[in-house]
Amino acid sequence: METPDSTRGKRTARGGFRRATMALTTAAGAFLLASATAQPVAADPDNIKKVAELTKEIKSLEKEYGGNLEQLRDTRKEAKKALEKVELLRRDLIGARALVAQLAASQYMTNGIEPTVQIVASDDPGSVLSNASLARHLSQTHSAKVQQIASLVAQQDKARQEAEAKIKALEKDIAEIAKERDRVQLLLKKYKPESPMVGSGGMTPRMIKVRDEIEAEYGPFPVIGCTRPGDPLDHGSGRACDFMESTAGAMPSSARLAHGDAVSDYAIRNASRLGIKYIIWKQRIYDLRSPGWKMMSDRGSITQNHFDHVHISVF
Length: 315
Hints:
This protein has helices at 4-37, 45-64, 70-109, 115-119, 125-178, 181-190, 205-218, 254-269, 271-274; strands spanning 224-225, 240-244, 276-281, 284-287, 290-295, 309-314. By secondary structure, it is α+β, with helices and mostly antiparallel strands. The chain has two domains: 4-179, no CATH class; 193-314. It is elongated.
Protein backbone atom coordinates (compact mmCIF):
# COMPACT_ATOMS: atom_id res chain seq x y z
CA MET A 1 0.00 0.00 0.00
CA GLU A 2 1.38 3.38 -1.02
CA THR A 3 1.53 6.13 1.57
CA PRO A 4 1.34 9.86 0.66
CA ASP A 5 5.06 10.16 1.43
CA SER A 6 6.05 7.24 -0.79
CA THR A 7 3.87 8.56 -3.61
CA ARG A 8 5.36 12.03 -3.24
CA GLY A 9 8.89 10.53 -3.23
CA LYS A 10 8.12 8.61 -6.39
CA ARG A 11 6.72 11.75 -8.04
CA THR A 12 9.79 13.75 -7.01
CA ALA A 13 12.16 11.09 -8.30
CA ARG A 14 10.28 10.75 -11.55
CA GLY A 15 10.22 14.52 -11.85
CA GLY A 16 14.00 14.55 -11.56
CA PHE A 17 14.20 11.83 -14.17
CA ARG A 18 11.91 13.77 -16.54
CA ARG A 19 13.96 16.94 -16.13
CA ALA A 20 17.17 15.04 -16.86
CA THR A 21 15.51 13.40 -19.86
CA MET A 22 14.41 16.80 -21.15
CA ALA A 23 17.95 18.12 -20.68
CA LEU A 24 19.33 15.17 -22.62
CA THR A 25 16.79 15.71 -25.40
CA THR A 26 17.67 19.41 -25.53
CA ALA A 27 21.38 18.56 -25.79
CA ALA A 28 20.62 16.09 -28.56
CA GLY A 29 18.68 18.79 -30.40
CA ALA A 30 21.56 21.19 -30.13
CA PHE A 31 23.89 18.41 -31.23
CA LEU A 32 21.81 17.83 -34.37
CA LEU A 33 21.64 21.57 -35.07
CA ALA A 34 25.41 21.73 -34.90
CA SER A 35 25.63 18.89 -37.41
CA ALA A 36 23.48 20.81 -39.84
CA THR A 37 25.59 23.95 -39.70
CA ALA A 38 29.12 22.59 -39.16
CA GLN A 39 30.11 21.74 -42.71
CA PRO A 40 33.72 20.48 -42.95
CA VAL A 41 35.53 22.20 -45.80
CA ALA A 42 38.58 20.73 -47.52
CA ALA A 43 41.62 22.84 -48.30
CA ASP A 44 40.94 24.92 -51.41
CA PRO A 45 42.29 22.95 -54.42
CA ASP A 46 43.27 26.27 -55.99
CA ASN A 47 45.49 27.04 -52.97
CA ILE A 48 47.11 23.62 -53.14
CA LYS A 49 47.76 24.12 -56.85
CA LYS A 50 49.08 27.64 -56.21
CA VAL A 51 51.62 26.40 -53.64
CA ALA A 52 52.83 23.79 -56.14
CA GLU A 53 53.23 26.48 -58.80
CA LEU A 54 55.04 28.80 -56.39
CA THR A 55 57.38 25.95 -55.44
CA LYS A 56 58.39 25.67 -59.10
CA GLU A 57 59.03 29.42 -59.18
CA ILE A 58 61.25 29.14 -56.10
CA LYS A 59 63.32 26.34 -57.64
CA SER A 60 63.69 28.36 -60.83
CA LEU A 61 64.82 31.43 -58.88
CA GLU A 62 67.27 29.35 -56.84
CA LYS A 63 68.95 28.12 -60.02
CA GLU A 64 69.13 31.68 -61.29
CA TYR A 65 70.24 33.16 -57.96
CA GLY A 66 73.02 30.72 -57.22
CA GLY A 67 71.62 28.58 -54.41
CA ASN A 68 68.86 28.09 -51.90
CA LEU A 69 66.62 31.01 -50.99
CA GLU A 70 65.98 30.16 -47.34
CA GLN A 71 63.43 32.93 -46.84
CA LEU A 72 61.21 31.56 -49.61
CA ARG A 73 61.67 27.96 -48.49
CA ASP A 74 60.68 28.96 -44.98
CA THR A 75 57.50 30.78 -46.08
CA ARG A 76 56.55 27.91 -48.39
CA LYS A 77 56.92 25.43 -45.53
CA GLU A 78 54.57 27.52 -43.39
CA ALA A 79 52.01 27.71 -46.20
CA LYS A 80 52.07 23.92 -46.65
CA LYS A 81 51.72 23.36 -42.89
CA ALA A 82 48.70 25.68 -42.83
CA LEU A 83 47.02 23.74 -45.65
CA GLU A 84 47.74 20.45 -43.86
CA LYS A 85 46.13 21.86 -40.71
CA VAL A 86 42.97 22.70 -42.66
CA GLU A 87 42.79 19.09 -43.86
CA LEU A 88 43.43 17.65 -40.38
CA LEU A 89 40.65 19.76 -38.85
CA ARG A 90 38.34 18.72 -41.68
CA ARG A 91 38.86 15.07 -40.77
CA ASP A 92 38.22 15.79 -37.09
CA LEU A 93 35.00 17.58 -37.98
CA ILE A 94 33.86 14.69 -40.18
CA GLY A 95 34.41 12.32 -37.24
CA ALA A 96 32.34 14.52 -34.93
CA ARG A 97 29.56 14.78 -37.51
CA ALA A 98 29.51 10.98 -37.87
CA LEU A 99 28.74 10.70 -34.16
CA VAL A 100 25.94 13.23 -34.60
CA ALA A 101 24.47 11.18 -37.42
CA GLN A 102 24.61 8.05 -35.25
CA LEU A 103 22.72 9.84 -32.49
CA ALA A 104 20.07 11.04 -34.95
CA ALA A 105 19.55 7.51 -36.28
CA SER A 106 19.27 6.10 -32.77
CA GLN A 107 16.67 8.70 -31.82
CA TYR A 108 14.64 7.89 -34.92
CA MET A 109 14.68 4.16 -34.23
CA THR A 110 13.57 4.68 -30.63
CA ASN A 111 10.71 7.05 -31.50
CA GLY A 112 12.71 10.12 -30.60
CA ILE A 113 14.04 8.78 -27.29
CA GLU A 114 17.80 8.62 -27.18
CA PRO A 115 18.95 5.04 -26.22
CA THR A 116 20.74 6.23 -23.08
CA VAL A 117 17.39 7.51 -21.81
CA GLN A 118 15.95 4.02 -22.06
CA ILE A 119 18.68 2.74 -19.78
CA VAL A 120 17.52 5.02 -16.98
CA ALA A 121 13.76 4.49 -17.56
CA SER A 122 12.99 2.69 -14.31
CA ASP A 123 9.92 2.70 -12.03
CA ASP A 124 11.97 1.67 -9.03
CA PRO A 125 11.81 4.64 -6.60
CA GLY A 126 15.12 3.58 -5.11
CA SER A 127 17.05 3.92 -8.35
CA VAL A 128 15.32 6.74 -10.25
CA LEU A 129 17.29 9.56 -8.59
CA SER A 130 20.66 7.94 -9.30
CA ASN A 131 19.54 7.16 -12.83
CA ALA A 132 18.44 10.77 -13.31
CA SER A 133 21.92 11.80 -12.23
CA LEU A 134 23.34 9.54 -14.91
CA ALA A 135 21.05 11.15 -17.49
CA ARG A 136 22.28 14.59 -16.49
CA HIS A 137 25.86 13.36 -16.88
CA LEU A 138 25.10 12.08 -20.38
CA SER A 139 23.44 15.40 -21.20
CA GLN A 140 26.58 17.27 -20.13
CA THR A 141 28.72 14.93 -22.22
CA HIS A 142 26.66 15.66 -25.31
CA SER A 143 26.74 19.40 -24.61
CA ALA A 144 30.54 19.19 -24.50
CA LYS A 145 30.47 17.47 -27.90
CA VAL A 146 28.37 20.30 -29.31
CA GLN A 147 30.96 22.79 -28.05
CA GLN A 148 33.74 20.70 -29.60
CA ILE A 149 32.07 20.85 -33.00
CA ALA A 150 31.64 24.62 -32.74
CA SER A 151 35.31 24.92 -31.79
CA LEU A 152 36.40 22.75 -34.73
CA VAL A 153 34.41 24.91 -37.14
CA ALA A 154 36.07 28.07 -35.79
CA GLN A 155 39.53 26.48 -35.86
CA GLN A 156 39.12 25.29 -39.43
CA ASP A 157 37.98 28.72 -40.59
CA LYS A 158 40.96 30.34 -38.86
CA ALA A 159 43.37 27.78 -40.35
CA ARG A 160 41.97 28.43 -43.83
CA GLN A 161 42.50 32.17 -43.41
CA GLU A 162 46.05 31.59 -42.15
CA ALA A 163 46.81 29.37 -45.14
CA GLU A 164 45.60 32.04 -47.56
CA ALA A 165 47.67 34.68 -45.75
CA LYS A 166 50.81 32.49 -45.92
CA ILE A 167 50.31 31.93 -49.65
CA LYS A 168 49.92 35.68 -50.25
CA ALA A 169 53.09 36.30 -48.21
CA LEU A 170 54.95 33.75 -50.33
CA GLU A 171 53.75 35.40 -53.54
CA LYS A 172 54.91 38.78 -52.20
CA ASP A 173 58.34 37.46 -51.18
CA ILE A 174 58.88 35.84 -54.58
CA ALA A 175 57.91 39.07 -56.35
CA GLU A 176 60.27 41.13 -54.19
CA ILE A 177 63.22 38.80 -54.76
CA ALA A 178 62.50 38.58 -58.50
CA LYS A 179 62.86 42.38 -58.70
CA GLU A 180 66.48 42.01 -57.60
CA ARG A 181 67.38 39.89 -60.63
CA ASP A 182 69.78 42.37 -62.25
CA ARG A 183 71.62 43.13 -59.01
CA VAL A 184 71.91 39.44 -58.15
CA GLN A 185 73.36 38.67 -61.56
CA LEU A 186 76.11 41.23 -60.90
CA LEU A 187 76.82 39.57 -57.52
CA LEU A 188 77.05 36.15 -59.14
CA LYS A 189 79.46 37.44 -61.76
CA LYS A 190 81.60 38.92 -59.01
CA TYR A 191 81.50 35.81 -56.83
CA LYS A 192 81.76 32.82 -59.11
CA PRO A 193 81.21 29.39 -57.50
CA GLU A 194 84.23 27.80 -55.86
CA SER A 195 85.06 24.15 -55.29
CA PRO A 196 85.80 22.76 -51.81
CA MET A 197 89.52 22.46 -51.14
CA VAL A 198 91.22 19.19 -50.21
CA GLY A 199 92.80 19.43 -46.76
CA SER A 200 90.61 22.34 -45.69
CA GLY A 201 87.81 20.36 -44.11
CA GLY A 202 85.84 20.49 -47.35
CA MET A 203 85.36 24.28 -47.22
CA THR A 204 85.65 26.60 -50.20
CA PRO A 205 88.40 29.28 -50.19
CA ARG A 206 85.75 32.00 -49.74
CA MET A 207 84.29 30.32 -46.67
CA ILE A 208 87.72 29.80 -45.18
CA LYS A 209 88.46 33.51 -45.57
CA VAL A 210 85.18 34.49 -43.87
CA ARG A 211 85.72 32.02 -41.03
CA ASP A 212 89.31 33.16 -40.41
CA GLU A 213 88.45 36.86 -40.51
CA ILE A 214 85.50 36.59 -38.13
CA GLU A 215 87.51 34.37 -35.81
CA ALA A 216 90.31 36.97 -35.80
CA GLU A 217 87.89 39.84 -35.16
CA TYR A 218 85.51 38.20 -32.64
CA GLY A 219 87.06 34.92 -31.46
CA PRO A 220 87.36 32.77 -29.64
CA PHE A 221 83.94 31.11 -30.06
CA PRO A 222 82.79 28.10 -28.01
CA VAL A 223 82.64 26.18 -31.32
CA ILE A 224 82.70 26.95 -35.04
CA GLY A 225 80.94 24.29 -37.11
CA CYS A 226 81.31 24.34 -40.87
CA THR A 227 81.25 21.37 -43.25
CA ARG A 228 78.62 18.67 -42.67
CA PRO A 229 78.90 15.84 -45.20
CA GLY A 230 75.50 14.83 -46.51
CA ASP A 231 73.84 18.15 -45.67
CA PRO A 232 71.75 19.15 -48.74
CA LEU A 233 72.29 22.86 -48.08
CA ASP A 234 75.40 25.06 -47.85
CA HIS A 235 77.02 23.13 -44.99
CA GLY A 236 77.26 20.11 -47.26
CA SER A 237 79.03 22.02 -50.02
CA GLY A 238 81.49 23.76 -47.72
CA ARG A 239 79.84 27.15 -48.10
CA ALA A 240 78.50 27.73 -44.58
CA CYS A 241 79.71 28.01 -40.99
CA ASP A 242 77.90 28.26 -37.65
CA PHE A 243 79.58 30.57 -35.15
CA MET A 244 78.29 29.25 -31.81
CA GLU A 245 77.53 31.60 -28.91
CA SER A 246 76.66 28.73 -26.54
CA THR A 247 76.73 24.93 -26.52
CA ALA A 248 74.38 22.02 -25.78
CA GLY A 249 71.36 23.91 -27.10
CA ALA A 250 71.35 26.42 -24.22
CA MET A 251 70.25 30.02 -24.64
CA PRO A 252 73.36 32.25 -24.69
CA SER A 253 73.94 34.76 -21.92
CA SER A 254 73.05 38.40 -22.54
CA ALA A 255 76.74 39.12 -23.18
CA ARG A 256 76.98 36.33 -25.77
CA LEU A 257 73.75 37.45 -27.44
CA ALA A 258 75.24 40.94 -27.76
CA HIS A 259 78.38 39.29 -29.17
CA GLY A 260 76.27 37.49 -31.77
CA ASP A 261 74.65 40.82 -32.70
CA ALA A 262 78.13 42.27 -33.31
CA VAL A 263 79.17 39.27 -35.42
CA SER A 264 76.07 39.42 -37.61
CA ASP A 265 76.42 43.20 -38.00
CA TYR A 266 80.05 42.78 -39.08
CA ALA A 267 79.04 40.12 -41.59
CA ILE A 268 76.40 42.40 -43.12
CA ARG A 269 78.72 45.41 -43.32
CA ASN A 270 81.44 43.36 -45.02
CA ALA A 271 79.22 41.04 -47.06
CA SER A 272 80.02 42.61 -50.41
CA ARG A 273 83.76 42.44 -49.81
CA LEU A 274 83.72 38.87 -48.45
CA GLY A 275 81.13 37.36 -50.79
CA ILE A 276 78.63 36.53 -48.04
CA LYS A 277 75.29 35.31 -49.35
CA TYR A 278 73.13 35.38 -46.23
CA ILE A 279 73.21 35.48 -42.43
CA ILE A 280 70.73 33.82 -40.04
CA TRP A 281 70.58 34.93 -36.41
CA LYS A 282 67.82 35.05 -33.76
CA GLN A 283 65.15 33.53 -36.04
CA ARG A 284 65.83 36.18 -38.71
CA ILE A 285 67.52 36.05 -42.09
CA TYR A 286 69.47 38.72 -43.94
CA ASP A 287 69.90 37.68 -47.57
CA LEU A 288 72.16 39.89 -49.69
CA ARG A 289 70.05 38.95 -52.70
CA SER A 290 67.07 40.64 -51.01
CA PRO A 291 68.58 42.86 -48.28
CA GLY A 292 66.99 43.50 -44.90
CA TRP A 293 66.29 41.41 -41.81
CA LYS A 294 63.22 39.19 -42.23
CA MET A 295 61.58 37.00 -39.58
CA MET A 296 61.56 33.25 -40.06
CA SER A 297 59.05 30.70 -38.79
CA ASP A 298 59.39 29.04 -35.41
CA ARG A 299 61.26 25.81 -36.06
CA GLY A 300 61.09 24.65 -32.45
CA SER A 301 64.35 24.66 -30.55
CA ILE A 302 66.89 27.35 -29.64
CA THR A 303 69.37 25.87 -32.12
CA GLN A 304 66.86 25.41 -34.96
CA ASN A 305 65.77 29.03 -34.52
CA HIS A 306 69.42 30.19 -34.58
CA PHE A 307 69.44 31.81 -31.14
CA ASP A 308 72.65 30.06 -30.11
CA HIS A 309 74.68 30.59 -33.28
CA VAL A 310 75.21 32.96 -36.18
CA HIS A 311 74.90 31.09 -39.48
CA ILE A 312 76.84 32.55 -42.40
CA SER A 313 76.65 31.25 -45.98
CA VAL A 314 78.79 32.44 -48.87
CA PHE A 315 78.35 32.47 -52.64
